[in-house]
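Hi team,

Filling in the usual template for the complex we talked about on Friday. All components are listed, including any nucleic acid strands or ligand strings, so the model treats them as one assembly.

SUBMITTER: L.P.
PURPOSE: interface mapping
COMPONENTS: two
RESIDUES: 754
SEQUENCES:
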Amino acid sequence: MNRRKAILRISLAGLGIATAGTGYKWWDLMKSPDFSYLQSSRELLAALCETIIPATDTPGARDTGTQDFVIKMIRDCTSRKEQNNFIHGLRDIQSHCQSKYGQPYQRCSRDQQAAALAHFEEKGKPYNGKLGKVELRLMGRPFFSILKDYTIQGYCTSQQGATMGLNYVYIPGSFKSCIPLEPGQKAWATS
Amino acid sequence: MGDPRQNHTFDAIVVGSGISGGWAAKELCEKGFRTLVLERGRNVEHIRDYPTASLNPWDFEYRLNNTEKEKEDDPIRTAYGDAASTLFFVKDSEHPYIQERPFTWVRGYQVGGRSLTWGRQTYRLSDLDFEANLRDGHGVDWPLRYKDLAPWYDYVENYIGVSGQKENYPWLPDGNFLPPMEMNCIEDHFSKSIRGHFSDRIVTPARTTNLSRGWNGRGPCQYRNLCSRGCPFGGYFSSNAATLPAAAATGKLTLKPDSIVLEVLYDEQKNRASGVRVMDTHTRAVTEYYAQVIFLNASTIATAALLLNSTSRRWPQGLGNSSDQVGRNLMDHFTGTGAEAEFDSLKDEYYYGRKPIGIYVPRYRNVNPATARKEYLRGFGLQGKGSRAEWRENAARLQGFGQDFKKQLLQPGPWIMWLGGWGETLPYPDNRVTLDSSRKDSWGLPLVKIDFQYHDNEKNMSKDILADIQDMLSTAGFSNIRSYSYLQPGGTAVHEMGTVRMGRDSRTSVLNGFNQMHEVKNVFITDGSCMTSSATANPSLTYMALTARACDYAASEMKKGNL
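RESULT (copied from the run log):
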């Protein structure tokens, strides 16, 4: 049972009536987020973003400074609950890597990083059906979903991501309604 | 210098500079009237005051996201504008109003109003709409018919430029069109499939004031799809790009931004409006201006509020409001029903350029006995848009991460088609705007109170919309249909109308067939408040046509000495 599921269970069981125990768990979500930990995790974040969008023949998330965008988004464009989910997630994945691989995420091998992140993707998956919707509403999105969302946004709206990873046309000037798609053609960066 | 009253006297005053106020300004100035346009918001000059128009996504600190703080302070503003366009929406926190039930009042207080951020789609109403109230007894009869407005639709379209396709479809009259903005592969497939399977329906390229070719010194559209930042190419119609410069070019226009009209002044002896009382939004200085004729184009809810606030011994219920209809019959289109679906073919096809519009399915329900529905009156139009899944959609579809994920993320994904309903709302007397004089805004005006709800007719119609959308998408071969249906708060479509309706009888309506107040003959009202029914189509074109027609009538009445 992870923290997220534990809080959800207790919240649903207590129907929102905060006993001492649930109050403590709820506080985990609603407390003032630990921004200094977030700020000090820049290297960890760069590595996480890079695992999601690695450099290939086009730039990766690290090249585009996506970690800085993620930090900005967490600080200023994210609800309190999700801020806490995210910062808890950073700590959790770090301690997961320490105990499993004996080193922080950013020093793990690519395979270890992929395995660790896959573990957190799985762990964050909401329950199926209605309960999952309640879970999302009550708890906010889990660590992995937030990380993935902001990494993709950060990458695809960065100058390098948009112009090299994708196909950015500043001023199209005309519209062609149906044209053949060339093999390997990149998608338009903006719609 | 001379007599201050003389310096403050014009031939005509127009309150508001949005899509209809801009037209009133242009028409009145071009007819030679010295016209004062009063706008409560700041000045926005075409091109010069579009600071975000040419920025790239990465030029914004949060890449177009609004911050939590901004969302908390100004929920409506941030729901309708991204970081590039919030500058054209008012801050909720600075402009409070009372919601008896949730109502989304989207406002753009600036020169040009919401003509900067509108959806730009333009459709004519037909006699199916103008006869609707008479036929089923809801509301009062429109005091005009399509033939009365048709020449004015022509007149307005010839000026603004409308890209569209002629269809010869009885309930969506054709206009004078520039070439349509072509449908892309998936929209074309959908159109052919629907026309093939449903003999009662058509799918046509959305009719839009985005210019498919240059027109009247503006445009053409550059296919950037950044319209609501203001278009430096003048690629779509706005007051700022078109009507206000045309009015200014006559030398007859005086435009005063930052000027809130507090009330319309009434001269009891002459039984006419003598002018308006105006507050400077910054200095709070109050001034009066006078004119022979006054056009109110402050937008549906604000115009009703202005009349209700214009009380006098003769008009204790508000100017020209013996009927008690001012503020009533507020309508919107309800848009909370639709679906998105995928298409598993045409994988080798793509497009170039960012088309700012999609497709339109004009009303096909309750148009004749064969299409009659028992469950509800009137009908709906459908709007849609097709595209390939690009990174935003791919992000939601694709599991995982890493190299293969990246490859799929950055390639065009499957074709996706979205379709949503725009449903007609009946005119209910209790859907209503009033004033609460116990609470005041920063300028000392009583707060506007909005009480609005949908009823069974809308609820029943939304079920049919949902069923039809699912049916049409699956008939056209789409899969993974994800539908939604909920009645959003009123105002969500930003098509608020009614509140000062036109009609044939001064006991049951406020305006006559020329948008002239029954009871105060030198006041004309041609914004959305004049609408007698909501119809199903986007209404702005009708406001513009009614405005041009009313200006023509007012001018002839002035020449005859009747005003």
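MY TAKE: The longest strand of chain B covers residues 286-296. Chain B touches chain A through 52 residues (CB under 8 Å).

Thanks, L.
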